[in-house]
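User: Hey, my collaborator sent me this sequence without any context and asked if I could get a structure. I don't really work with proteins. Can you help?
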Amino acid sequence: MNTYTTTSAQETRALGERIGCGLKGGEIILLSGDLGAGKTVFTKGIAAGLESLDPVVSPTFTLVNIYKARLDIVHVDLYRLDSQEVWGLGLEDYMDQGHVMVVEWGDMARDFFTGACMRVKIEYLDETSRRITVEAPWTQDF
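Assistant: No problem. I've predicted the 3D structure and written it out in structure-token form, which is a compact way to encode the shape of the chain:
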């Protein structure tokens, strides 16, 4: 487990980008944190690290966005769902080596996601600072 402190949205994005650069496919990244903590900013960094040119926006109302990249990114937001509703989204179709799944509010359905999951907790410290705890079952330097 690694803990980082970022002091701007740019630093939060940069940490996500470093993580995205090292992804190989099949990873599931479960993000947790309060509203406005920086989950989507972090996801924008992951997308940049995976060389996506698609604009990354929170899928709060669409539930799932897919971005073309070196490895396609499946960006999911579970904020408006209960844990049982996740089973009806068809996300299991994307849990393979050709995709990276990034799940905002991933703690809402932790049991649904199989395989190696990276857990990222983003805590609001003040207006610009965040504490980001990354726990991954694989070794990666970022």
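In plain terms: Residues 2-135 form a domain with the Rossmann fold fold (CATH 3.40.50.300). You can pass these tokens on to your collaborator as they are.
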